[in-house]
Amino acid sequence: MKKSVIESVKKHIDGGFVLEKPKDLSFGHYATPLAFSLAKKLKKSPMIIADELCLKFDKETIFDSVIAIKGYINFKLSDGFLDAKATEAIKENLNFAKSDKNESILLEYVSANPTGPMHIGHARGAVFGDTLTKIGRHLGYKITTEYYVNDAGSQIEMLGLSIYLAGVDRYTDDEVKWPDEYYRGEYIYDLCDEAKNEFGVEVFTQENIQKLSSWGKDKMMNLIRDNLMKAGIEFESFVSEKELFKDWDDSYKKLKSNDSVYEKDGKVWLKSSEFNDEKDRVVVREDKRPTYLAGDIIYHDNKFQRNYDKYINIWGADHHGYIARVKSAVHFMGYDEDKLEVILSQMVALLKGGEPYKMSKRAGNFILMSDVIEEVGSDGLRFIFLTKKSDTHLEFDIDLLKQQDSSNPIYYIQYAHARINQIFQKSGKSVDDVIDVHLKDLNEDCRNILFSSLLLSEVLEDAFESRQLQKLTEYLRNLAAAYHQFYNKHKIVGSEDEDKLLKLSAMVATSLRVGLSLMGIEAKSRM
RNA sequence: GCGCCCAUAGCUCAGCUGGAUAGAGCAUUGGUUUGCGGUACCAAAGGUCGCAGGUUCGACUCCUGCUGGGCGCGCCA
Predict the structure, then answer these.
(1) Within-domain flag for A90
(2) Which nucleotides of strand B are protein-proximal, with an atom < 7 A from a CB?
(3) Tens-digit pLDDT profile for residues A232-257
(4) Residue A142's pLDDT is what?
């Protein structure tokens, strides 16, 4: 819709201009403050310039009127134009607001360590990534989703150790000497019970820690997949850190040939300080074991070899310090580091009855994603995360999520959708019965809500490109509110304009349905 | 100490690449139905946009400094 407007305006105005939405819809559907920027150059008052420019648009049929108000040029779209767009959109149904962006994107997200179940912090990145994928694909982006499994390193051993200790604690008379660091929490005891059932009590010996590590890791990975599935999230590919390490030599050669590594004190260092990082980083230790960073270097080498237009990583905000060193490695290996974008997902503070919950894997008193889903449902969980920017700290009280009334905005939107469905039932008509009605001679209320419902495609593009998905939820909430208002003000079934108003309602429902489905939330036809 | 993020109504947050009178939800107070689901709607009240400068015709938005909070600053992952 916006594209049509821009094209029409371009015909009459030279050079660039800003097209924005007026504060007040009664001014027009679109507006430009162009006259202000021209005022200085032309040495005339913005009001006069705006008046003059308006006259040029007399013959544009997509506009009902073009008027100047306080220096702003306001464009009001014609009923015919809006009607044509709406007819098309209703017919497209779930395909409405699709686009043809063709960029290929490799999206890596969640990548939670397989040493414990998903907690609420992971859930935020998971929901964000999944929704970004859904919206992106709707717009035509070719997105591949990937989960990087950190199945190497001491953390996995610590998992085995923790299971072993729990087993000794629960099933033997021996006294456990708890080390400083180990994983605690219910799930470790669950694992140890399971291990006992599978292997018998005799598995809890020092010699079996290795075995328990690898076994536990697989169990955790299954659990994580299960957690994700409950929120409607599936990954196309899982990449194992352990597997990748066989390619270390290749990646290392690339770094070496670009003279971006050096040896010092028996270790290998990356010259990341030459590229935005605070200091150089060790990639191979004295004992020849590569560091965690080395794993990420191989992984990104691997990613870039697959030749996508863009690579997006969603990381927890506590990893922000890591961006510079990974980007520097990508750069040193000869790739365009600007193709790598990192989206940070901020901390989630969960409250319950005003009491703050601390989230720590090691302490084990974290909130499980699966518990939250059980309490508020997948829809509720998803919506809450999608109402906030990913990079702001988010705080919510779980007791509030449990309330299934108007304080939970998701019900508000679903109710609007359900309401439209009920109206159609009451009228005894179907969408097909009213699709060909011409929406003309509309009153202001009708035209505004019709226009609002057509904005979805612009909102989706904006939300995706700015990576600010809350714009979609904000939009849906506003659209639902507009419809509830409309419903209270105008009688639909049995009115003189019944067919027109039904078509209008169908259009609103279409946008709500598409928007909700992209968020992975069900659009209910009755509550 | 250095780096990144944040600071907007009592609370939780929006505010589009700078643009018209800074918005919503919750909470508070008061209203609305013989009209299609009141799980809704209307209205009132609530703000020196953390502080101080600067750039601009115009700043919540951009720049600088300061204050307060979070996170990071491992040869852990």
Answers:
(1) yes
(2) 2-7, 12-17, 19-21, 23-27, 35-37, 39-42, 57-58, 69-77
(3) 999 999 999 999 999 999 999 999 99
(4) 96
| Whether residues A6 and A89 fall in one domain | no
**How far: A356 CA to B68 C1' (Å)?**
21
Here the tokens at position A350 are 């969960």
Q: How confident is the model at residue A363 (pLDDT cuts 50, 70, 90)?
A: very low
Residue A302 has pLDDT above 90, yes or no: yes
Least confident of A94-98, A132-136, A380-384: A380-384
What are the two backbone dihedrals, phi and then psi, of residue A439, each rounded to the nearest 5 degrees? -85, 90
Average pLDDT over residues A346-365: 60
Instruction: State the total domains in chain A.
Output: 2
Q: Which domain, by its residues, includes A488?
A: 82-100+406-518
Which parts of A200-256 are beta strand (E)? 237-240
Window 24-43 of chain A: CB closer than 7 A to strand B:
24, 27-28, 31, 33, 36-37, 39-40
User: Are A507 and A422 members of one domain?
Assistant: yes
Distance CA A432, CA A446 (A): 20
- A 158-197: CB within 7 Å of strand B: none
Interhelix angle A444-454/A470-489, nearest 10 degrees: 160
- What ipTM score was computed for the predicted complex, to two decimals? 0.91
Dist CA A493 CA A304 (whole Å): 58
